[in-house]
Amino acid sequence: MSSADEPCCDAPDPHWESREVVGRFADALVCKSCRRTLKLEDWAISLDLPQPERCTNCGGRLDRVPYSGPPDPAAKCNDCGLSVADAKKLHKRLVRLHPTGDYLEAAKACRDLGRLVLAFKLATAQIAYRSDTIEARELRLQALEGLGLIEPALVEAKDWIDRGAPASVFSITAGLEAARGNLDGTLDVLRLGLSTDPQNTRLWTDYAEILAHFDEREDALEAASYGLSSPEYRNRALDVVALIAETYESEDKLQQAVAAVQRAGKFKKRSVRIAWLTARIAARLHQWEEAKAWLRVTLELDPSHREARLALQRLVPEVEPKPSNGGGWLGWMRRSKDG
Predict the structure, then answer these.
(1) Nearest to 43 by CA among 141, 133, 116, 139
(2) Which tens digit of pLDDT belongs to each residue from 212-245?
(3) Considering only CA atoms, which of 80, 135, 73, 78 is closest in space to residue 107?
(4) Considering the entire predicted model, what is its pTM?
(5) Gap between the terminal Cα atoms of the chain
(6) Is residue 4 classed as helix, strand or coil in its secondary structure?
(7) Helix axis angle, 103-113 relative to 134-146, nearest 10°?
(8) pLDDT tens-place string over residues 34-61
(9) Pairing state between β 14-21 and 24-31
(10) Dist CA 41 CA 199 (whole Å)
(11) Contact present, 53 and 144 (Cβ < 8 Å)
(12) Are 275 and 294 in contact (CB under 8 A)?
């Protein structure tokens, strides 16, 4: 590992990533440029949710288990050897890394930095020492997925669903099923989630995306219509509409492509993909004024869209020209116009 006082290379670009090291998990500060490890922090973690008979540090069994109530502070873990009191001191020391001294806030900050092992550890401490919050438990699932521990994450998520989980957990669980390649399981989880919360726009958007993957076009468009109503998920829903419309267009089913675009309603002019596609469809139908209008919309949304600028310059010569070899969509449009 490189010295903290010396640059690792001519263009240092450090970032955090997580890895398994000799049976433990570690957060590594790695330079993107030279791939040198600048710092390595390995931690014991408890894959199980906090239990009175388990060590908060590593999940091992305590040598003394209370019949009821909290564990004896002097009880020691049979695996890592820390007492209950020592494990609590360790987590208190770790949470001081965050200015608020709050376990959950510290866990979220570590997650955002890519320090997933420490994020998982602090989220577990939040549950053990503060309160069992939805955010802390979701963060555990997110960290497990990031560490590649899909099966333990699924076990925890499905147990939560069985006990009554919020709708967001169905979305996380669907993502975990997809991560292990079980797309049918993804559909099943989303359908179950929608049966418990039929108006949840996050679940509808997830459902639209997976239906589009299965090429269930009309059902995907219907599901995406729910996502369009939510500012938080609207862009994802618009991407589903764009994907299906693009597929129709590529199959020369222009009327179906137009109908798909119409499902975006008043939000059509908020998507570069949809605006660019609509311009192309209009050109193929020789609707030149419509094509020009949508090319302008495309450029309003993305002024750097080279193909749209070249196409508009072809239709409206006074538009500032850009260097072009005459190929790409511009050449294709010329053939459409002359046809």
Answers:
(1) 116
(2) 999 999 999 999 999 999 999 999 999 999 999 9
(3) 135
(4) 0.82
(5) 65
(6) coil
(7) 30
(8) 999 999 999 999 999 999 899 999 999 9
(9) antiparallel
(10) 43
(11) no
(12) yes
